[in-house]
């Protein structure tokens, strides 16, 4: 057995790209104010802290393919309403480096736990989008002491049944998961990351195989036994990426959760016009 490598080998992030690159033009490092990095055992992690220091703390966790850019509408609204918001890029996305390890639930939840320790936040309210919803569930189940009042799941994954390998061969795994996405800007950022970040596609493939999309049933079941936290589920009835039935699975395991079914909405709830506005208001009320 080969000796483990320490520190973990990583592949570069958007930080190493020229500032004139199309990807950095679409999502510059200063897209949000107050950005910084911390060095984890698995590479450098980019994060931003927005809003008043005395505001209720919320972390926003993005999905499998688009970095924290996706919260460009939601985050400012939370700040306007007095919340302090933490955004960060998951490993191998955006400005966070890509460790050469398995992208399983343990990697994702320890990334956030270490980040909270680094910025000296004792606990936080958690909002997760798509795969980020699965991260939110796994994190909250494993580290309940780090969760303040509750968790919000936005089109959350975690218990999906993906197509068998022979059914998706010769396809981009992200395209297979996001086959019907109609949000052009997120598709552009996804495609530019694929072209420019050497660890990005590997991380996507590993995430699809590593259990974060399909294997966090235990986390949702554990949260269903929780009595000191509150849970809110948002899901579009026309979601082609994480089907609406996934929300029903979560609701079944967390019966005390409130389910908000958004009729006709697709997957990109955080940027879909006519959807994100009302959803954000409900999140604000939930944590008020």
Automatic annotation (TrEMBL):
SUPFAM superfamilies: alpha/beta-Hydrolases (SSF53474). It comes from the Eukaryota. This is AB hydrolase-1 domain-containing protein. InterPro entries: AB_hydrolase, AB_hydrolase_1, AB_hydrolase_fold. Residues 58-273 form the AB hydrolase-1 domain. It comes from Hermanssonia centrifuga.
């Amino acid at each position: 057995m080969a000796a483990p490598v320490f520190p973990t080998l990583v592949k570069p992030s958007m930080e190493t790209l020229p500032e004139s690159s199309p990807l950095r033009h679409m999502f510059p490092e200063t897209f949000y104010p107050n950005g910084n990095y911390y060095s984890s055992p698995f590479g450098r992690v980019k994060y931003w802290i927005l809003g008043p220091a005395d505001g209720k703390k919320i972390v926003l966790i993005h999905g499998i393919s688009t970095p924290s850019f996706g919260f460009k509408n939601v985050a400012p609204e939370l700040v306007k309403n007095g919340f302090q918001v933490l955004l960060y890029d998951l490993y191998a996305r955006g400005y966070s480096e890509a460790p050469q390890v398995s992208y399983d639930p343990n990697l994702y939840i320890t990334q956030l736990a270490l980040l909270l320790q680094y910025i000296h936040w004792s606990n936080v309210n958690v909002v997760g989008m798509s795969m980020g919803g699965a991260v939110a569930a796994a994190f909250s189940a494993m580290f309940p002491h780090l969760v303040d009042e509750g968790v919000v799941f936005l089109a959350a994954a975690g218990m999906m049944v993906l197509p068998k390998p022979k059914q998706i061969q010769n396809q981009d795994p992200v395209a297979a998961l996001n086959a019907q996405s109609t949000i052009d800007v997120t598709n552009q950022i996804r495609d530019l990351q694929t072209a420019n970040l050497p660890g990005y596609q590997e991380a996507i493939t590993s995430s699809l195989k590593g259990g974060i999309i399909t294997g966090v049933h235990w986390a949702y079941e554990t949260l269903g036994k929780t009595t000191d936290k509150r849970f809110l589920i948002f899901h579009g009835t026309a979601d082609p990426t994480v089907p609406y039935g996934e929300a029903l699975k979560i609701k079944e395991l967390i019966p005390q959760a409130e389910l908000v079914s958004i009729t006709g909405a697709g997957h990109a709830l955080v940027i879909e016009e006519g959807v994100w506005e009302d959803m954000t208001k409900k999140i604000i009320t939930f944590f008020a």
